[in-house]
Amino acid sequence: MRIAAACAAQGADHHVIRLAGVADPALADAPGDDCAIGEAGKIIRILKQENCDAAVFAGIVQRPDFSALKADWRGAALLPKIITAAARGDGAILSVLVETLESEGLIVIGVEEAVQELTVRPGAFGARTPEEANFADMRKAAEIVHALGPFDVGQGAVVANGLVLAIEAAEGTDAMLDRCAALHNGVSQGGVLVKRPKPGQELRIDLPVIGAETVRRAARAGLAGVAVEAGVALIIDAEEVAALADEVGLFVYGFTAQEVAPR
After folding, report:
1. 82 with 186: CB under 8 angstroms?
2. How many CB atoms lie within 10 A of CB 40?
3. Percentage helix, strand, coil, to 5, in the chain?
């Protein structure tokens, strides 16, 4: 919704492809069309009819049940390639989708190019900043995400006082933080949630994202803070995130690659 609003504010022509069953209801009034996830041919045809020259991927789409997927002819032709990519992870699936759009002459751009204020900047969001012990946890968590990158596991990890509490997998960040909350039983355990892109990740799509809900769940899990890599991650409603972080007593921090480099 923020991308469509930003385009409208800039007077830029835009057309929204709303994926059936997963699109934000707020997009109902935006100029666009409703398409099923398997209708690749229809999607490409619409984008060309609307004279679109660039495409932006946004939102959360769960991996579909390929055996039950209803596809048009283009989607059906693409399906074997997607299924093969699925064995390597969701990142490989997204790369196939990018390649498909690019083969049709579309430029795939990142969300941060369309809405620059969503990009995480370096430094603290709010009054609190990490202490040295927090930086030690951040470095370990960042190294874990980096090391697991070839396996396409996830973009997040939680480390508290050197102890690995959780690694993000298919369940996503929210569910991972809920697992951490179940571990501490209301007793503050410190620790940091770190989110960063996986090595080799296609940075135009599926960047790490945090928002107010991330902070709320981190607080329930008794964490000291949330850290996300600056310049290659997104933050939704930064002012709200900063205010909430101050309210619940957490830090939210945009770190640089140098800050989490192994020592």
Report:
1. no
2. 24
3. 45, 15, 40
Over residues 168-216, the pLDDT tens digits come to 998 899 999 999 998 876 555 789 999 999 888 888 888 999 999 999 9
Which DSSP helix (H) or strand (E) runs through 176?
helix 173-184
Provide the b/e sequence for 192-225 (b: ≥16 CB within 10 Å): bbbbbbbeebbebbbbbbbbbebbebbbbbbbbb
| Tens digit of each residue's pLDDT (9 = 90 or more) over 14-49 | 999 998 888 888 888 889 999 988 999 999 999 999
Strands (E), the chain: 16-19, 32-35, 54-56, 107-109, 123-124, 156-160, 163-167, 192-195, 209-210, 225-229, 234-235, 251-255
At 28, list the tokens. 């109902």
Residue showing tokens 């939680």 = 158
Cα angle, residue 15 at apex, residues 10 and 19 outer, rounded to 5°: 130
- C-alpha 115: how far from chain center: 15
Q: Whole-angstrom Cα distance, residue 208 to residue 206? A: 6
> Do 219 and 251 meet the contact criterion of CB atoms below 8 Å apart?
no
Task: State the average pLDDT over residues 96-102.
Answer: 90
